[in-house]
Amino acid sequence: RCHAVILAGGSGTRLWPLSRALFPKQLLALNGELTLLQQTVKRALDIFPPQRIHIVTNEEHVFEVRAQAKALDAALEDNVLAEPMIRNTLPALMLGLNAAMKQDAAPLLAVFPSDHMIHNAASWQRAVQAGAELAAQNHFVTFGIPPAHPETGYGYIHRGARIADGCYAVEGFVEKPPREKAEEFLRGGMHFWNSGMFVFNGEDLIAALETYQPALAAWWNTRTATSLRQGYSAIPSLSIDYGIMEHVSRIAVVEADFGWDDLGSWEAIFRLGEKDEQGCVVQGDAMAIDCENSLLLSRGGKLAAIGLKDVIAVQTRDATLLCAKDQVQRVREVVSRLKAEG
Ligand code: GDD
Ligand code: MG
User: Fold this and answer.
1) Taking the complete model, does pTM exceed 0.90, yes or no?
2) Which of 67, 77, 124, 197 could form a disulfide with 258 if both were Cys (CB 3.0 to 4.6 A apart)?
3) How many Å apart are CA 104 and CA 193, to the nearest integer?
4) Is ipTM strictly over 0.85?
5) Whose CA is nearest to atom 23 of ligand 1?
6) Which residues form ligand 1's pocket by a CB distance below 6 Å?
């Protein structure tokens, strides 16, 4: 009775100009032949039958998402759910739950973001299995990554008492803490990063929605009379992390030993890319002469760089990014500015 819900609606603004409104990062092949979405779907197909995999995305991307899913398994074509407008991950999850409940009255839901790399599929499968068992015992299940630096873009999970091998009760969940908090969590040694994957018991999720998000619960309760797509514009925009995880008490964490990377920024693409002798990642139609520790990537025309150090250069057919390597988090400022300029 466990279903997979794949979240494929993010925008990936920090990977501009490769990632665009119409082509967000999960739909791109950034690290191999398959796109990030396809890698996620492929992993899910190893443990879930296709009819129990539900992919949720924005209406704008349905066509492309469907094509990418179908290329892996024709049966997935009908399992792509469209959100009429962007309302973040919690409403998207509820669309997935609704689809799952058409097959199973009381499903478990394994939630997978589509912007990650998982390095060890076998141990990932074991972790998901362990998570499903905990969710069956009414835990809200998270997967914890040992933190490597005081990242402020992730959720933090406060580890409590041991429940089973590699599984712990959770004392608290804090989404995207300020820098000082993140540093404190790192020093204390009791926190994991939240991987963004979850396993929920559908009934527990609905109960939590009733308690903590009454506006969303009211919308959810209309589903027998109308389609959930109706009324979508009126519901609040809310993530699973802020909307559910920061409130509920029965959280468990499965320690993730499967090797995890968030491909959120150009720094990650650089870090995971294959380096030449000068420590440069050179991809596509790009050339580096005496450059060091830089990423040079072109998907549109020749890009040549000489004598550069610590630079990110990304060229597409109609846009180019030149960025100091220690400022990659600021790429989203470009997107905000472009939006403001219309
Ligand atoms: N369908 C749909 N609709 N999917 C969405 C939407 C939406 O409106 N918004 C985001 N997503 C997808 C993204 O494509 C991604 O795969 C996943 O949902 C998570 O959304 P992000 O926007 O990437 O979240 P985040 O990175 O800020 O934070 C989450 O992930 C971190 C780890 O990478 C949180 O769960 C953090 O706690 C976590 O540490
Ligand atoms: Mg993300």
Assistant:
1) yes
2) 124
3) 32
4) yes
5) 10
6) 7-10, 26, 56-57, 83, 86-89, 92, 113-115, 154-155, 175, 193-196, 241, 262
